[in-house]
Amino acid sequence: MSTPTINIPGYVVGTWTIDPIHSDVSFIVRHLGVSKVRGQFNTFAGEIVTAEDPLQSTVTATIDAGSFHTRQEQRDNHVKSEDFLHVDDHPEIKFVSTGIRQDGGENFLLDGNLTIRGTTKPVTLALEINGFGEGMDGKSLIGISATTQISRKDFGVHGGAAGAAVSDKIQIALEIEAGLKSE
């Protein structure tokens, strides 16, 4: 039995560093069941390793939980408190991939372990490889979009009394640009 060949246009093998200036780590959560609140994390880092076999590629990422913001300081401070993220005791959110698989056609599923507030759970991200290219300085770049949905309660994020106003389900959206490391 032969293994199907995965053809990703312009695919480059190597180790890539996430560029936080040209990337975005965002989320959407329902408030009171009638509206959606959007937010971001400003500080994050990560590495993507593209292997000869794309299905052997890996991703690791760390997010500074204290860099959370929704453009409303009172809400942001509450989410950083013990009721939600408890950033004083859990300053980082981490993701480590455990596998990648094709999701038909050109899209992939990235499996991994996500750690929030000291609790690690498996998650799967729908992954779209936007392309490989060259930056203004001639450096090789990769662009990736990824989405998933998690249950905040699975990670021990209950929200205290305010938790009733916020949905359990959180949509996560990533827009990632990474540059090839010089060897």
How far apart lie the N and C ends? 36 Å
Number of continuous helical runs: 1
User: Uncertain regions: pLDDT < 50 for 5+ in a row?
Assistant: none
Instruction: Find the CATH superfamily.
Output: Lipid/polyisoprenoid-binding, YceI-like
Shape: elongated
Name of the top-level CATH class: Mainly Beta
* Structural Rg: 17 Å
Count of discrete domains = 1
CATH architecture: Beta Barrel
Order of helices and strands: EEEEEEHEEEEE
Average pLDDT number: 93
Structural class: mainly beta
Q: Describe the largest sheet.
A: 8 strands, antiparallel, barrel
CATH topology: Lipocalin
Domain Lipid/polyisoprenoid-binding YceI-like: 15-179
Organism: Kibdelosporangium aridum
Pfam families: YceI
Family: Belongs to the UPF0312 family.
